[in-house]
Amino acid sequence: MKELRSFISDSEMLSIRKQCELIDMNRSIYYYKPCAEKPENLHYMRLMDEFWLKHPTYGVLQMQDFLKGKGYSVNHKRVRRLLRKMGIMAIYPKKNLSKLGHASYIRPYLLRNLTIERPNQAWAIDITYIPMEKGFMYLTAIIDLYSRYVVGWDISNSLEATHSLEVLKKAIKTHGAPEIINSDQGSQFTSALWTNYLDNAEIKVSMDGKGRAIDNIFIERLWRTVKQDYVYLHPAQNGWELHQGLKDFFIRYNTKKTHQGIGRRIPLMVYQQCA
């Protein structure tokens, strides 16, 4: 990774983005810096992340009790801060929903009772925290709901809306535009940047209802598979190693792994046969 980074220079005529493309290096890896969290906090975050996959309704106090049961006495304020940094919130009905994002950009959930019968009819996008050996990054992925094919993904060291939009644009460039794209009501998606782009592209915007864990269930299952089959088993040392590992994982997920939800078929075969 250090050798690849040495090929990139701010003084070149080409942009950092173009230089990264030429050497086939993800731009977010170039900008990645190990987080400043203490090792003990990274350990708590890793434990809470795995626990939350199984218990997504658990909030701050229950997470605090979980850590206490593991032998760690952690102040609830620290637990809350770490969960926010991880982008994790307990799934349960809440009042004042506009706190997560701008209420004016929240859209209704369009997938309820909708029959998904072809590729690119509906995509789902989400972001998840990925623990590493000495830090963490965030993974954004987009899945085609008909075929379970992952049409786009990338990692970043921030939760900025611009990154999610870049992942979407790349997916559309490669696979064409979906009719509908569904997300949660996170600040990345309840923003003018996100909704204006989709409106201009004539893509319908759908968002999960707050407190409804099943609205984006397919991508939640994807996160469980990513973390249990790769991330937890092979903690990455750095951003480059993480990107390469995830690249191999998604190739295997899309082209070799069968899925019960699509009749024990392979996502790529279903996506290509019907696209």
TrEMBL record:
Matching entries from Gene3D superfamilies are given as: Ribonuclease H-like superfamily/Ribonuclease H (3.30.420.10)
Q: Which residues form a coiled coil?
A: none
Source superkingdom: Bacteria
Instruction: Show where the Integrase catalytic domain sits.
Output: 115-275
- PANTHER family in UniProt: INTEGRASE PROTEIN, TRANSPOSASE INSF FOR INSERTION SEQUENCE IS3B-RELATED
* Record's protein name: IS3 family transposase
